[in-house]
């Protein structure tokens, strides 16, 4: 059992070992994903600051299982709310008040509704975490400095090294050919920028201009 768990954890850790490519805009990213799919790549993952319409179709993703899980949770919550009130009112602690029915479903609707919503919300959160493999405190993509902009203004696609079509040289050429502005090879040792041939390349760092005297910041809202 421990070996199986260790293998599963290693498999999760290796999921994002491969090539990470940055694209200029959402349209370029969708076009690149469609191109990669046409070339036979299947183990793809995209990272964007916001949802992109058509990305699920471009990646060939099936219908999410989360909706079915939430529906099951809602049904379970509603049934539990009904049975709870029926059992307490008519079986476990029956009280005859003015010869009224011991249990009436009409007055039970608020509790049934609340438990339906509660179980739906809990199933949605738990199912999302489970299907996404979260929490995941370690991810080799975090070695990439560029990747930090995935929540701001950058658009990325990752091709896993476990993909049967993956080849560092060929895949790098495919990514640049589809319009990538930068490509990095990411593994457990770090992130390395690569060229179209898949070889490491030095990224030039723009030097800051030399200034003399005190630096006065430029304000955009008038004098302060």
Set out the fold topology.
Layout: H1 2-13, E1 18-23, H2 26-38, E2 44-47, H3 55-59, H4 66-92, H5 105-131, E3 155-160, H6 168-177, E4 182-187, E5 190-193
Antiparallel strand pairs: 1-3, 1-4, 2-3, 4-5
Helix pairs in contact: 4-5
Can you give a write-up of this model?
It is a single chain. This protein has helices spanning 2-13, 26-38, 55-59, 66-92, 105-131, 168-177; strands at residues 18-23, 44-47, 155-160, 182-187, 190-193. It is an alpha+beta fold and 224 residues long. It contains six helices and five strands; from the N terminus they run H-E-H-E-H-H-H-E-H-E-E. It is elongated. 19% of the residues are buried.
Strand line-up across the major sheet = 2-3-1-4-5
Count of distinct strands = 5
| Helix amount | 40-55%
Q: Which whole number gives the mean pLDDT?
A: 87
Global Rg: 27 Å
Could you say which overall geometry the principal axes of the C-alpha atoms support? elongated
By secondary-structure content and strand pairing, the structural class works out as alpha+beta
Strand content: 5-15%
Profile the largest sheet.
Answer: 5 strands, antiparallel
Amino-to-carboxy terminus distance: 66 Å
SSE arrangement, N to C: HEHEHHHEHEE
Discrete helix count: 6
Low-pLDDT sequence parts: 204-212, 215-224
